[in-house]
Amino acid sequence: MIQIDPIALAQLKTLQLQLSQPCAGLRLIAEGDPCLGVKVRMGWSAVQQPEDVMVQLDGLTVLADRHHWPLLKGCQIELGERLGEPGLAIQVMPGGCQCSSARCEPVRQAS
Hints:
InterPro entries: HesB-like_dom_sf (IPR035903). With 111 residues, this protein is mainly beta. It is built from two helices and nine strands; from the N terminus they run E-H-E-E-E-E-H-E-E-E-E. It has helices at residues 6-17, 69-72, and strands at 3-4, 25-33, 37-45, 52-57, 60-65, 76-82, 85-91, 97-98, 103-104. It has a four-stranded mixed sheet with strand order 3-2-5-4. A three-stranded mixed sheet has the order 1-6-7. The chain has a two-stranded antiparallel ribbon with strand order 8-9.
């Protein structure tokens, strides 16, 4: 499940209320590879697509293509800063990733 910091959630909900056009939700788009790094883009989406996964986070609708969902489902969204500018930071930790050991591979199941 996506985790979102309460302050970031409140800011996103405020931004959504200020939109001039109807909005289906906040779209997350994952690009990259779990081992080499995943970059997440986001933006407001006017419509929900048939291939979308939709998640409700305390009044905020988050949308993602079902093909991106495996990379996004464990992400954490919080307030952050980039080059001195405030914004949102999205940390992605895909399932099965063992980045603490500097290698990403499927978790071995006990037999």
